[in-house]
Amino acid sequence: EVQLVESGGGLVQPGGSLRLSCAASGVTFSTYHMNWVRQAPGKGLEWVSYIGSGYNIYYADSVKGRFAISRDNAKNSLYLQMNSLRDEDTAVYYCASDRDYAFHLWGQGTMVTVSS
Amino acid sequence: QSALTQPASVSGSPGQSITISCTGTSSDVGSYNFVSWYQQHPDKAPKLMIYEVYKRPSGVSNRFSGSKSGNTASLTISGLQAEDEADYYCCSYAGSLTWVFGGGTQLTVL
Predict the structure, then answer these.
(1) Considering CB atoms only, which of A47, A52, A100 is closest to B98?
(2) pLDDT, tens digit (0-9, with 9 covering 90-100), for A85-114
(3) Residue B66 above 80 pLDDT?
(4) Which of A101, A114, B48, B70 has the fewest CB atoms within 10 Å, counting from its CB?
(5) Is B70 helix (H, G, I), strand (E, B) or coil?
(6) What SS3 state is found at B14?
């Protein structure tokens, strides 16, 4: 079965750090372009970051300099290292693969809460 | 990276057709034929319904269709069904491997 499964969410204080993981199965992960997309409670979707199969990386302005995306093809895994977390980073974080400039496959999401 | 503009809500009766608009700029919707639409039911992950403006992924009903004119894209759902009630988000490629989403539209089937 083709699926993406996120983990690593939780409660963290402002200024803290958290590392999210996304495990892929049923796909040739190394050929997939991967993204993180987040959704604040009761709000819309926001694209966060991209890492291509060739390891090129891009970020939304809102997280640039604080978040770092990476991948380990040997482990079929995607990561998001989140530093200097702010209240406004509170959201469900989804990993999603893109093809044809659209997000075809999504995980179920992991909740990140930034609060003191 | 400003969000695309969608109506907050639309509604329709079963069997009717509705259209959701998505307005961007010449830097995103107007520049690329890479507009996609997502359906999201409560507490579920988004699901791709339309990509490259009008293409449907395998398994998506042909009641869903997409179009674009200038800086505005549209999603039309024909023959509304109860299970279509959900939030819908448009998304556009914005260049340099970045994307921008719309604020979302809540569809109510009366």
Answers:
(1) A47
(2) 999 999 999 999 999 999 999 999 999 999
(3) yes
(4) B70
(5) coil
(6) coil
> Quick check: A83 pLDDT over 90?
yes
Instruction: Name B44's Cβ contacts closer than 8 Å, sequence gap at least 6.
Output: none
Q: Which of A52, A79, A47 is nearest to A64 (CA)?
A: A47
Nearest CA in chain A to B42: A42
Question: Does position B1 have pLDDT exceeding 80, yes or no?
Answer: no
Q: What are phi and psi of B18, to 5 degrees?
A: -135, 155
Closest-CA residue of A relative to B95 is A101
Return all residues near A46 (Cβ < 8 A) that are at least 6 apart: A37, A38, A39, A40, A60, A62, A91, B101
CB A113 within 8 A of CB A86: no
Measured between beta carbons, the chain A residues lying within 8 angstroms of B51 are 100-102, 104
Confidence of residue B56 (pLDDT cuts 50, 70, 90): very high
Backbone angles phi, psi at B54, to 5 degrees: -140, -5
Check residue B2 and give its pLDDT: 83
Confidence class for position A20, pLDDT limits 50, 70, 90: very high
Quick check: B52 and A45 CB within 8 A?
A: no
